[in-house]
Design goal:
single chain, 140 residues, alpha+beta, Double Stranded RNA Binding Domain
Length: 140
Amino acid sequence: MSETLFINRQISLPLAEIEMEAMRAQGAGGQNVNKVSSAVHLRFDIHASSLPEDCKARLLARADHRITSDGVLVIKAQQFRSQQKNREDALQRLAGIIRSATVVARPRVATRPTAGARQRRLNTKKQRSQTKALRGKVDP
C-alpha cells in the first residue's frame, strides 16, 4: 500500500496525517461482530494537515456533523466484514470529502426578469383569478 492518499492531480496527503483505529462494528452480524475488530474510525485533523489553506477554510466552513468543533474530521467505516476493506472505504470517503472542498463555488449573479416574463406572469395570474372566481356559489 502506498504511503500517500491522492486526492486529485494537485493534492495528495501523507498517510501519517491520518489516524485510523480499528474497533468492533455495531449491529447485526452474529459472533463475527463480537469477536473481530473490523470497523475503522478515521480521524483527520484539518488544522494540522498539509492541505492548501483555501481548501482547509472551505472544509471547516461546512455544516458537516462529522467535523468536530476542534476541526477534526471523523469517519466511521463499518460496511464490510473485512478491516482492510473498511480502511479503504474510509480513505476513499475522506478523499471524496476533500475533493468536494477543492471545488470553488461560483458566486451567484443576481438577475432580473425581463419585461415579457413579467407580463406573462401577470397574464397567467389574471387567468387563474378568473378561473377561481367562476367557482363561487351560483345565485338562482
